[in-house]
Write the structure tokens for this entry.
Amino acid sequence: MNMGLFRLARLPNCLVRLIRCVIGLIICIYGGLSSYAQSVQVITKIIEKELPYTEGQPIVLTAQKADVTIKGWNRSMISVRLRLIAKHPDRAVAEQELGYHQYSLRAINNQIDLSNRFVIPQSVGKLKSQLKAIYEISLPAKALLSITNSFGDMNLSNLDGNTTVTFDFGRLRLDDITGKLTTKSDYGDIDGRNLDATLAIKAEKAEITLQDVSGNVTIQASFGKLTLLPNPTLDALNVDATRTEILIATKRMTDFGFELTNSFADIRVPENVADQLIKTKSKQVFKYQPLANKPEIVIQNRYSPIIIQGEKPLVDRR
Amino acid sequence: MNDSLPQLPEYDPADKLWDRIEAHLQADEQLNRLIRELPAYEPQADLWNSIDSRLSASERTITRPLWRNLSLPWVGLAASVALFMVGVWSLWPSEIPEKVRIEYATEIPKPASSKQPKSIHWPASTTRTEEFIAKRCAQQKAVCQRPEVHELRKQLTALTIKQQRIEQERAVFGDDPTLLRAQTKLETQRAEVTKELITLLES
């Protein structure tokens, strides 16, 4: 080794520089080729469309494996940007399988129909590419909106109309929602902030977190987790749950009245109101009404605990 | 051609054919004779003059003004309405044709998360769990008839059905990240339900 270095040191300077350049070039080419080999070709078909909207006209979004972002605005137009994506290391494969995306963005029978689906020939079998659809939609805030989706994340914000969302798996994020919202979730998590709506949620095996929630809220849940931070401006909150861990975190307990019933599991409340808790063999009941005309929180649960937090800050359980 | 002529079929003419042809010929001769016997009439002497006078009378054209009954304010109002309608039409929101374009990019894939299951032996674990539960229920019938056990078993069945759906999706879409996340969630749920069920059966 030392002999080799000695010999290299004895070569003319210009030759040494040339050898270094060649070695550097080889390393660069190798690095570039290896990163190219690892890279994935992303082919995106972008469709942009604007559709006029008349008041009361239903907007129906039927999505598959789609990430959806919907924002309410005060224009009487619907703006849709749909991205259909195919990813594969081989560009030709991605290009071919991009063709399996199908979509529709149109007004038909006085209804706005927005949809995507996958049409895969039987001879193809298993897809080689990763296919995904991404919607970015702006629509009138007071629109009549109905959404179905599977295996995708959704973000809804600034909506003040009548919205229905049915989905399984994935996640639903809600921000600044008023009006009416009905949601049915199967294995899909829900995360909501600043909600002041007539809100109805039916969820199976979902983690639900609602912060700053007002309005009239009805929740049916089973086999999940439910965390609620109600606002004192709440109208009413009703929860009917089975095997759902429920946490209600309030800034002041005195802002609400409580009527809690739990079968085969505990109700945990702050120390200062623990004397209001009645325990029997299989059932626990907690009734608390500090002042008249306070919004009522009514919860029924089975087999999983109900926890009420008072002045303490909420502990992030996730 | 000559050889094939004798092979052609023979047809006889219809009865009284010649009588009908003869009758037609006689009718033509009769018609020519009768035309010659028709009377001839001359027109009246002043007929052309009367026609000529009537033609010159019809040349006088009556002109009717188109706007005779319309005053200027009415015309202005009509023009304003027309202009207003054109304006509304131009500003009225209309469906704009969609714009479609294709974009190409490359990305370096993120290293696969160790949490994401690459291959899952779900059927094997399902079978083992079901076998265990069935065995326990055979031994302790009273325990399995409890509503909470019944409900948990129902949940396990529901989870199995969902799992089958994910398997179907994976058969088409492969190891898609969203499907793997869904599968992880199902597994977690299943583990929780199974743990609770076994705890109940063991108690």
